[in-house]
Design a protein that fits this description.
The chain has an 8-stranded antiparallel barrel. The longest helix has 17 residues. It contains 3 helices and 9 strands. The chain is globular and about 45 Å long. The chain has one domain: 2-Layer Sandwich (Alpha-Beta Plaits). The chain is an alpha+beta fold and 208 residues long. 18% of the residues lie in helices and 32% in strands. It starts with a strand and ends with a strand.
């Protein structure tokens, strides 16, 4: 599975939020992406965790496709996702600092995979990124992939633990409670941010 991340950070106002018109237009474009399997739209949330010292981006999205060929087609100069570069439709979002990453993603089993989010609420996705270089990347990745899924599986309320490109991890909780003591050491720079997550497929939009 390939995951494509887009992150939007306001250059001067950490409290800025995406406006409804741009968010709706963005969602409509993403949902129509050819060969899209699922997409998550992220908006800032709050959670209790001693590691949460980072400013939360005002908007982010994670698209899932089966293979890199599908993503390359969507991102090609004439591809479907080029619609997201329209300054007419996204005058505020495109003034942000925008980052993009394509990663191999894998999920891991947990004891209780069923969401129990209250009606009308969105689950909390806690995104942790490790950015930098390791003295021995393969050793670091091997240690992480071996030891961290069992740690994440023990988090209270965890539902969808994932590791993307084997140095980014994500999981969704039914509320904003996390267990900061179980967060693994990073290499280089890391950031920890909570989001409310809205799930979409080509057929529908919903919470999990």
């Amino acid at each position: 599975m390939i995951a494509y991340f887009l992150t939007f950070r306001h250059q001067s106002d950490p409290g800025a939020r995406v406006n409804a018109a741009e968010a709706t237009c963005f969602a409509e474009i993403v949902r129509a992406t050819p060969k899209l399997q699922k997409a998550l739209l992220f908006t800032p949330a709050s959670a209790h965790d001693p590691y949460l010292k980072d400013e939360v981006p005002l908007f982010a999205v994670q698209l899932y496709v089966a293979d890199i060929a599908a993503l390359e087609a969507a991102l090609a100069p004439t591809g479907h996702l080029q619609a997201l570069t329209s300054r007419r439709d996204f005058p505020n979002l495109l003034e942000c600092d925008v980052t993009q990453q394509a990663m191999v993603t894998r999920g891991f089993a947990v004891p209780e995979p069923q969401f129990r989010t209250a009606p009308g609420e969105l689950p909390c996705t806690y995104l942790v990124a490790y950015e930098g270089t390791a003295e021995d990347l393969q050793l670091w990745l091997s240690h992480y992939i071996t030891h961290h899924p069992p740690i994440m599986a023990r988090f209270p309320g965890i539902r969808l633990p994932e590791i993307s490109a084997l140095h980014r991890r994500q999981f969704a909780l039914p509320d904003g409670d996390g267990d900061g003591d179980a967060v693994a050491p990073s290499y280089g720079t890391s950031f920890h941010v909570p989001f409310s997550s809205f799930t979409m497929t080509r057929e529908r939009s919903s919470t999990p």
